[in-house]
Amino acid sequence: MSSFNSAQSPTRSHYQRMANLGGLRGRSLDLVRGGVFNLPVNAIQALANDPDVLYLAPNRPVQMTGADEYEATVGGDAAQSYGWDGTGESVAVIDSGISDHPDLHDPGTGVSHVVYSESFVPGLDASDQYGHGTHVAGIVAGNGQSSGAETARTAKGTQQPPSSEWPPARIS
Question: Structural domain boundaries of the chain?
Answer without folding.
Answer: 2-56, 67-147
